[in-house]
Design a protein that fits this description.
Distance between the termini: 54 Å
Largest sheet: none
Order of helices and strands: HHH
Shape: elongated
Helix content: over 70%
Radius of gyration: 17 Å
Structural class: mainly alpha
C-alpha cells in the first residue's frame, strides 16, 4: 500500500478508470459478437441494426482511449468485410 497521499488518490482513480474501460470494452465486444452472429446467420434485418451499433461502439471506445485508433480501424474494417457477404 502506498504511503504518499497523492499516490493513494491515484490508486482510487486508476481503479475507477479501469472499471470504466472494462465496461466500454465489454459492451464493444458484445455488440461486435451480435453483429457477427447476424452476419453469419445471413439475417439482413438483424445485421442492418447490429452493424451500425457495433461500429458506433468501436468508435466510442477509440475516442475514449480504451482501444487504439488503428485497432478500431482494423476491427471496423474486418466487420465491414464480413458484412459484404450478407
Amino acid at each position: 500500500m502506498a504511503n504518499i497521499k497523492s499516490q493513494k488518490k491515484r490508486i482510487l482513480t486508476n481503479e475507477a478508470n479501469r472499471q470504466r474501460n472494462m465496461a466500454v470494452r465489454s459492451r464493444m465486444k458484445t455488440l461486435i459478437k451480435q453483429a457477427t452472429t447476424a452476419i453469419d446467420a445471413k439475417d439482413k434485418d438483424a445485421a442492418g441494426i447490429a452493424i451500425p451499433q457495433a461500429l458506433s461502439a468501436i468508435d466510442r471506445a477509440a475516442s475514449k482511449g480504451v482501444i487504439h485508433r488503428n485497432t478500431a480501424a482494423r476491427k471496423k474494417s474486418a466487420l465491414m468485410h464480413q458484412a459484404g457477404t450478407v
